[in-house]
Amino acid sequence: MPTLPRRQRVAAYAVIMRVTSRPEVLLCRLAPRISRTELWTLPGGGLDHGEDPRDALLREIVEETGLSATVGDTAHVYSAHLPRASRDGVMTDFHALRIVYDAWVPSDAPAPRVVEVDGSTVEAAWHPLERVVDGTVPVVAMVGEALADHLPFQLQRVAAYAVIRRGSAVLLTRLSARAHHAGAWTLPGGGVDHGEPPADALAREVAEECGVECEVGRLLDVHDTHFAGTAPSGRVEDFHGVHLVFAATIADDADPRVAEVGGTTDDVAWVEVADVESGNVPVLDLVRHALGLAGG
């Protein structure tokens, strides 16, 4: 048997996931000239000579899905050797090296669409993860390998929040559509930057979210939460939030209003504690925990 010509191809791909009502993964359907039957793969493609893998991946994601993505720092590498493979009608001894990154698109990204004309893919779509895993959606072998190795990004975040009372009401902020718990109300506050004193971080966050200055008082307690979801950036995260809960005050004549545009807060209001306790106002567990500590 004659020796077949050797061909080696290096390509970069991305596992791009999101969580809406259920986990979904972004896939691209191979063109009929590549697969006669319906077959889906990860967004990505071959590296040009001298091209950085991450740059190649960003280019391919735009061409195949029309979306701008952020690519993570680490990747898995998969090797597939096909001693007899037909590539463009020519039999070759084919070796594929596939570099698969974690990547994400903004949570408010438009629907995916193929931009490249006459490329290797003809459709891009979000698919429920369980339908991919159980084989309902036909995928190339690489997709199964990559999903088996994929773990959500682990993020632990320290944040500071304020319990600000006025009579029988408490000052709350509402989470915008960019946040994971969109529409729920929480305490004013947010993440502590590296090296930032928590009290300073809290004063800064209250000014951004409520448009008022606050005086930070004593630390009431520490609360935490753990869940998996989509961050404002669009990255699916295994999230652990550690919350420092402070007592705080604002001036009697202060008029809270949302100051930060395009953030994770879209409203601020004085909410009766009785409405929180009765369940009439949807709030995060942090609020109930803090109100119990504060004597609410």
From TrEMBL:
Keyword Cytoplasm: no
InterPro entries documented for this protein: Nudix_hydrolase, NUDIX_hydrolase-like_dom_sf, NUDIX_hydrolase_CS, NUDIX_hydrolase_dom
Keyword Hydrolase: yes
CDD domains: NUDIX_Hydrolase
UniProt KW keywords: Hydrolase
Gene Ontology MF annotations: hydrolase activity
Short name of one Pfam family: NUDIX
Domain Nudix hydrolase as annotated: residue spans: 8-149, 155-294
Family, similarity comment: Belongs to the Nudix hydrolase family.
Protein name: NUDIX hydrolase
